[in-house]
Amino acid sequence: MNISFYEPYYTGTEINYIKEAMEQHQISGDGHYTEKVVSLLKNKFEILNMVMTTSATHALEMAALLIDLQPGDEVIMPSFSFPSTANAVMLHGGKPVFSEIEEATLNIDIKDVERKISKNTKAIIPVHYGGIACKIDKIMALAETYHLYVIEDAAQGVNAKFKEKHLGTWGHMGCYSFHGTKNYTCGEGGALLLNTNDEQLLYRAEIIRQKGTNRRKFMLGEIDKYSWVDMGSSYTPSDLLMAFLYAQLESMDHITQKRRAIHSYYENFLKRYVDRGIIKMLQTPIDCTPNFHLFTILCRNERERNMLMDNLKKKGITTAFHFVPLHSSTAGQKLGYHQNDLPLTENLSKCLLRLPIYPGMTAEQLAYIQKHLSSCLDGFGEL
Ligand SMILES: *Cc1c(COP(=O)(O)O)cnc(C)c1O
What is the tens place of the pLDDT at every residue in 197-213? Predict the structure, then answer.
C-alpha cells in the first residue's frame, strides 16, 4: 500500500463555482467570489478587516510594508518556522532574530523572546505550529510593554482558536495560508487580517496590494480614474481561485471533522507508546481549539526518528520532519547564526516526525499505518 504524506481534498463544488465565475467574466481579482470569501471569513471568525492575497508569504510581505520596516529593524520570530516568515523581514532590509520554542507545542518561547528584545526590535512574528495557538495573549502583553507590533503567522492556524478568539485576530495583523497543503485551500492563496479600524492603514493596505494605485476608490465609485499613488505590488488573487476557496470554506466544518477523527485515531493508538516513554505527542493547551492541521510526534533521538521514517518509507508510508530550523539552514548561517545557537530548537527538530493527516485517508490506510508504526515502535523498547 502507498500512502502519500498529503493529498488535497475536493468538495466537488469547486468546479461549479469556477464555471460560474467564468460565465460572469469575473476572473481577475476582487470579483464576486472574493467578496463572498471575505464576508464568510469575517463573519465566521469575527475579523475586523481583511484582504485576500496570493499567499501567506505575500500577506507577511504586505505586513512588513505596512509597519514600515526599515533596514536595521529587528523582528523576533521562532527559528522553527517556514522561510517565508524570515524572508518577509529580510526583503525590507530587516533582521530576523530567532528565538527558541517550547517542547510541549513547538511554539515560540516567550521568555526567550523577552531576552531578545533590543532597542532595534520593531515587531514579533509568532507562529501557531500545526494550528495550536502559541501564548498569544502573553505575547500581546509583552508587545504592549515594549511598543512592538505583532504579526501572527497563522498560515497553519485558519479556523483554530485561543480562548475562543480566532488565531490571526489577536495580533495587529495576521496572515493566513490557503496553499495546497493547508486545511482549506485554493492551491495558492492567503489573507492578511488587519485587526484595526485605522482608516489610513486600511487604505494603504489596498494601495499596496493594487500595484500602488488607488484602484479600490475607483471600484467604489469614489473617483473617476485611478492612478499611481504609492509603492505597491500585485498581491490580489484571481477570482477563479476565490471561487475554488469558497467551495472549501463552505465545507470547513466537514473538513475539520474528518481531520479530527484521524487525529484521534493516532492519539488513541499511540498513547501506549507515550506511556512507555518511547515517544511524545505534542500537547494541546487547555485554552486552545485546534484545527488538526498536523499530527506530530517526538522520538527520543534523531536515530530513532530516522529509523522510523525509513521503515515506514519501505512500507510505502511517507512522513515528514519540517521545519528545518531557519537559523541552522544555509540562509541562517549567512545571517551569522551557528549550530548550537538554539540547542532546544535543534534537538526538537531532529526528534520530530509528522504523520500523514488529510480528509481523504481511509480506515484501511490508518490500520496499515498503525500496524507498521506499532511494530517499529515496539522494536525500540523501553530505555
Ligand atoms: C505554509 C506556511 C507559510 C507560507 O504559506 P504560503 O501561502 O504558501 O505562502 C508561511 N508560514 C508558515 C508557518 C507556513 O506553514
Answer: 999 999 999 999 999 99
